[in-house]
From TrEMBL:
A Gene Ontology BP annotation from the UniProt entry: xenobiotic detoxification by transmembrane export across the plasma membrane
Family: Belongs to the multi antimicrobial extrusion (MATE) (TC 2.A.66.1) family.
Membrane topology recorded in Swiss-Prot or TrEMBL: Multi-pass membrane protein
Domain of life: Eukaryota
Subcellular location: Membrane
Keyword terms, alphabetized: Membrane, Transmembrane, Transmembrane helix, Transport
Gene Ontology CC: one annotated term: membrane
Sequence intervals crossing the membrane: 142-165, 171-192, 204-225, 237-256, 277-297, 317-339, 360-379, 404-423, 430-454, 460-481
A GO molecular function held by the record: xenobiotic transmembrane transporter activity
Keyword Transmembrane helix: yes
Protein name from the UniProt record: Protein DETOXIFICATION
Keyword Ribosomal protein set for record: no
Lineage: Eukaryota, Viridiplantae, Streptophyta, Embryophyta, Tracheophyta
Amino acid sequence: MDVSIETVERTDLRQPLVAPTDSERKPQTKVRSLESVLAESNLPFRRRLYLGACIEMKVLFRLALPAILLYLVNSGMSISTRIFAGHIGSQELAAASIGNSCFNLVYGLMLGMGSAVETLCGQAHGAHRYDMLGIYLQRATIVLALVGLPMTILYTFSYPILILLGEPKTVSYMASLYIVGLIPQIFAFAVNFTAQKFLQAQSVVVPSAYISGAALILQILLTWITVNVMGLGLMGIAYVLTISWWFIVVAQTLYITTSQRFRHTWTGLSWRSFQGLWSFFKLSAGSAVMICLEMWYSQILVLLAGLLKDQALSLDSLSICMSISGFSFMVSVGFNAAVSVRTSNELGAENPKSAMFSSWMATFVSFVISIAEAVALMASRDYVSYIFTSDAEVAKAVSELCPFLAVTIILNGIQPVLSGVAVGCGWQTYVAYVNIGCYYVVGIPVGCILGFTFNFQAKGIWTGMIGGTLMQTLILLYVTYRTDWDDEVKKARKRLDIWEDKKEPILN
C-alpha cells in the first residue's frame, strides 16, 4: 500500500479555534494521519520516516518559528536594556547585568509555574476538553499572582542581599534601584506567561509574536528618549522595560477575551477557577523548580563573576556572553514550546507514535541549528562584543570566552527541547531532581573549584557549569529514549480525569 504525502496531510490543521462538530470529526485529522503513517507496517521504514518527517516539519515550524520570534523579542527587551546601559558606562552595564540576573529569579519562577498550564491545556486540547483551558488559565494566573506577593518584598531589600552575596557596594546600590523599578513586572509575568501557554496549547503563537514585536519597538523608542533626551539614566531604562511588559499583558488579554477564536476555550471569568488552588499550586511547584533551576544556573555564573579578581571586567565580559547565549537560547526555547505543544496534544489525542516522533524530530532540528549558531559565533568572536560596548579590553575577554560560549550554545540546542518533551509529558518533578544533581551538586561546585581554587577564573567556573549541563543533557536523552509512549498516553488520560471538573468531554 502506497501512501502519498497528499493523502496523509490534513488541510484543517490550523489554529484550533473552535470545537469541531461531530461531522467535522469524522474525517481523519492530521494528527491521526501522522499516527497512521508511522503505524503503517506495509510501508518500508525509510518511506514512513520520510512521510512522517514531511508532515511533522510543517507542523513543527508552523509552531516553532512564531514562538522563536516571540521569545527572541522578549529576550531582546532585556538585552536592549544592557545595550543602553553599556553605552552609559561600565558600572551601569554591570548594575543592569546583576539587576537582570537577580530579577530573572522571579522570571524563571513565573515561567516555570506557567509550564503546568502548558501540560494541562495541551493534553486537554488534544482530548477535545476545551472548556477546561480557560479554567486552567484563570487558576494559574491567581496562583502566580499570589506567589508574586512575597517576591516584591525580596526585591525591595535587594541591596543588603547583594552586599551579603559579596557584590561591590556601588554596583549593588545601582542594581538595587534598577530592580525596584522592575517590581511591577512580577505581576505582568503572572498574567503574560499563563496567557502565552494558553495560546500555545491551541497552536496560536503568531498574535503573541506581533504583540511582543510592537512592545520591543515601543521599548527601544521610549528608552532612547528617557536616556538621551530626558537624562533619566538607569532608572529610566527600568521604568520603560516595566511599561513595555504591561503593554504586552493588556494587548494579549484583550485579544483572548474579545476574539471569537476562543469562544469554546475562553468562556469568561468563573468561580470554578478558585477551586483546587492548593492542588494546582503543588502541581505548578514541580514545573517551577524544573525551569528555575535551569534558568538560575546561568545567572549564578554572572553572580560568581562578581567575586573574581577583576570584578568589572569579569562581569562585563560574562554578561555579554550570557546575553549572546540567551539570544541563541531563545531559538531552542521556541522549539521547546513547539515540541511541548506537539507532545501534549498527541498524548491527549492518544497517539503514542506521533508523540515520540515529534520529540525526536524537534530535538534533531534544534541541534542542527545550534551547530550553525556556534560556527557563526566563532567566526565573529573578535567583533561581536562591540554591539554591547566599545571597550577593547572587554572585547578581548569576550573573544577568549567564545569557545566556552560555543559549547554552551550547542548543548542548549538539545537540552531545552528535551525539557519541552518533559513538560508535554508532565515529567517536571523528575527533571527537577535531575537538574538539582547535575547543576548544583556537580556543575557549580566543580566550577567554583576550577575558578577559585585552581585560579582559572571565569573560564574555570564556566567549564564546571558546562559539565553539569552535559550530564543533564545525556540523562534526558536516555530517559526520552527509554520512554514507553503507550504508558504516557494512559498517564495523560488519568491526569485529565483528575484535574477536570467533568469526567467526560464537553462535546459529548
